[in-house]
Amino acid sequence: MKEDFLHYLWKFKKFDFLHALTTQGETIQILKVGNHNETKSGPDFFNAKLNIGGQVWAGNVEIHIKSSDWYAHHHEEDAAYDNVILHVVWKHDVEVYRENNTPIATLQLSDFASAEALNNYLKLVEKSNYNWINCEKNLASVSSFIVENWLERLYIERLQEKAKVIQAALVSSRNDWEAVCFQLLAKSFGLNVNGKAFHEMASALPFSVVRKTRNKEQLEALFFGMLGMFPDACDDVYALRLKESFDYQKIKYKLEPLEQQVEFFRLRPHNFPTIRLAQLAFIYATTQNIFLELMQLKSRKEIHALFKVEVSAYWKNHFNFGKESKSSAKVLSTGFIDLLIINSIVPLKFHFASLKGGSATEECFSLLNELPKEKNATIKKFNELRPKMATSALESQALLHLKPNYCDKNKCLHCAVGLNLLIK
For the residues of 33-51, what is the DSSP string, one character each? Predict the structure, then answer.
């Protein structure tokens, strides 16, 4: 038994509330269950209105598995609980008193809970009934209306989480949106393997230096140099030239190279950090005010056009310093630009609009619905349990938020799908 389930019983009156009595035998009439406090500290339901034993009370409701949890959680020492008018518990094992020594009315839900609701809850959360997620056997039965609306809400949650990271970067950069954009794009260019290293490089390198440098070779020198990517012993003319350029800029701008190492292992050559940094350098050498441009672009097609960049001449026939290869353009692929939209551009649009007092929700939804769903084991499994559950990037992003934040934490009673199955 979990408190979440008791919250559900109280919130949706899934018990014999018409005949409910306190542990002292007083009648309870629910005039208003109260507002569910899902995120803040304090009582579980605010502003409830109850008739207890013929007297109307207005105040808060606190819910526990056992009455003694009141003391285990030290609520008797917290003024936030002084206005609790009803203590709802599964098992009443001790009286709870107010500061003036009057007992707080207690409802023992186990005496009045719906057997059907309890059975549905146990079937949902019992480990023997599922292998991957609690609702896997019944996920396909939930209406499309509920699933689609829930996925949209989940995606907004995901954007809000990313907005917190962006806001922290804004504070560090003194509200320099171009600098924050550079950091997010750099992280996306590094993908999962080198994203952290690229982000640290973009954060450690003053953006004022990047802003004033419009030469591809100098930018490459800065990016490679900050990550210590020049080979120790190499007679490659280009590598030596970049190193010389970085040594000069390091002194000029008082730069401190990072100890963070980039990885090549298990990466396809086109995803080598050398190529991705060369592409990033090309973009910043050829496009001014990238952030402002991105905020003006509305469609996938427009954004893809902005990122149709190549690499400098040297990297067309190299994947690493000193090792010549067959010449190729090494442009950003469609799939890679889609990842930039998902991981960097849309979160930036969302937070930028919110700080301006507006909303970019519809624009973000429109962009993500233009993109195909991501391909990974999580999305594949959801689509097996419910065919076509994810057909766009918006839906796949929502599911990638759902699995670790709800399913893996057994937060079924906070999930629209879980609640629907319980109510059914």
Answer: --EE-SSSSS-SEEEEEEE
User: How far is the CA of 191 from the CAs of 73, 102, 145, 231, 276, in angstroms?
Assistant: 43, 61, 34, 23, 9
Q: Report whether 139 contacts 385 (CB < 8 A).
A: yes
Whether residue 121 lies inside any domain: the answer is no
Question: Torsions phi, psi of 280, nearest 5?
Answer: -65, -40
Of all helices (H) and strands (E), which one includes residue 60?
strand 55-66
Specify which residues 89 forms β-bridges with: 64, 108
Residues 321 and 217 in one domain: yes
Q: Is 359 exposed, middle or buried (0-12, 13-18, 19+ CB in 10 A)?
A: exposed
Confidence class of residue 304 from pLDDT cuts 50, 70 and 90? very high
What pLDDT was estimated at residue 101?
Answer: 87
d(CA 323, CA 373): 36
Q: What are phi and psi of 113, to 5 degrees?
A: -65, 145
Cβ neighbours for 391, distance < 8 A, ≥ 6 positions apart? 373
One domain, residues 181 and 241: yes
The pLDDT value given to residue 130? 83
Q: Which amino acid is at 300?
A: R
The region, left, alpha or beta by phi > 0 then psi within -120 to 50, assigned to residue 22 is: beta
Three-state DSSP class for 113? strand
Q: Which residues pair with 163 in a beta bridge?
A: none
The pTM is what?
A: 0.87
Same domain, 163 and 249: no
Token match 């008018």: residue? Answer: 85
pLDDT in tens, 51-108: 999 999 999 999 999 999 999 999 999 999 999 999 999 999 999 998 888 899 999 9
User: Which tens digit of pLDDT belongs to each residue from 377-418?
Assistant: 999 999 999 999 999 999 999 999 999 999 999 999 999 999
Tell me if residue 141 falls in helix, strand or coil: helix
The residue range of the domain holding 61 is 3-113
- Average pLDDT of the chain is 95
pLDDT of residue 71: 96
Q: Helix axis angle, 144-172 relative to 361-370, nearest 10°?
A: 110
Conformation bin of residue 53: beta by default, left when phi > 0, alpha when psi is -120 to 50: left
Give the length of the chain: 424
Distance from C-alpha of 111 to C-alpha of 82, rounded to nearest angstrom: 26
209 and 323 in a single domain? The answer is yes
